[in-house]
Amino acid sequence: MNGVKACSRHITSRYLGARTVRQSVTRSFSSTTTSHAKTDSNHPDSLKFVSHFQSPVVQQLWVARQEAKANVTATDQSLPRVPRQSTTSVSYPFSTNEFLKESYRNPWGQVRFGKILEDLDALAGNIAFAHVQDPAMTIVTASVDKIHISKVSSLETDLVLSGKVTYVGSSSMEIRMQCRNLDDSEDEYWLEAFFTFVATDPETKRPVKIAPLKPESLLEERHFAAGKQRATARKEARKARKEASGSIGATSGKFGAIAKDLMDQAGPVINMPSISSPDKILMAQTELQNCELAQPQTRNMASQIFGGFLMRKAYELAHSTAYIFGGTLPTFYEVDEVSFGMPVNVGDLLKFNSRVMYTYTSSDKSTLRCFDGLSQTVSVEVEAWVIDPIHHSAKLSNKFYFTYAMPSDVPLRRVLPSNMEEARKIATRMQADHIQALE
């Protein structure tokens, strides 16, 4: 496997067969249970085999990052880096590796996108470390700003997932990643993702300054400028959401007018449900939920629950929500936003709540870009809460927003709020998605 270099790197694929995996996990279990029977999940020795419980790609990325940390000394963060220093890629040889192919197969014979979300988070971590090149720093996922696909990928085609740092602030960095077919050129990608990572001090947990980024080409300068614009937009969006949450009952302002209109439409459904229009439904009636105990096998290299795992669980619940709501198999379209508010630890009880926020149908029934026959979308919100029944505590950990495409001939109900708080939430999300669509 290639270690960290000062230039573009490809994570060598050493995918394990089923028998090798069983032997490896057995050795890991034997080692930890006999030699460290009383160690807890935070003990350094318990992390030695944590990558074995992940997907083959995540395993390779984490092993590569561990090797990189072991072979690099802290570098001067005042010296600028160039984007090619963080460029990293990993391949999916589905055509020659049946075990890998089965690991990524969904029930319909396509690539299981929840697993790709895990791989994106792991790859972004490697790219972030390649930029900072300081093993003493802790790098964490701050947000996912957008993941968009232009087609449903086939398991019959080998893939390449790659990315690099495209923008750096003071302590944060934007990471742009793409996935393409192995035989296609680099600009023929079918997936594009933007992650924001933050470097923190392991003791104080506060952000620390990282090396600036120096673009080397006109294209990299454009990427840098776009990243800066997105960072500014995120700050403005956070401010707008804070102002909106501080005035739940207000009907003035940008979101207030939309919220009031939504409540006016919801009035008959709330007060006369038996005779109201059958093409409308209250948001609360679209909700699904599940609970998950955070197991040590889902930790990351920092001994906290892997962000990619949380994204996969949220994605799968959102998919089920859209499936039940539309009555037909939804097609994943994009991740609109993911926020990471607080870390999730081993042993935490996680509660995932999902709901349909709103639906959209093209006015002229024109199909969505790159998706023939699909002209409607369903926007789904998933919240992850860390709940503590013993201490009667519940804290919001993550918010996820997904969009699914639906066939043009499927009748979708209009989703309406039950109260002004829900109305402002829908209005805020609709505005955020509108702004993002204009980028």
UniProtKB/TrEMBL annotation:
GO terms for molecular function: fatty acyl-CoA hydrolase activity. SUPFAM superfamilies: Thioesterase/thiol ester dehydrase-isomerase (SSF54637). This is HotDog ACOT-type domain-containing protein. GO terms for biological process: acyl-CoA metabolic process. Belongs to the acyl coenzyme A hydrolase family. Keywords: Hydrolase, Repeat, Transit peptide. Residues 90-203, 284-410 form the HotDog ACOT-type domain. InterPro entries: HOTDOG_ACOT, HotDog_dom_sf. The keyword Transit peptide applies.
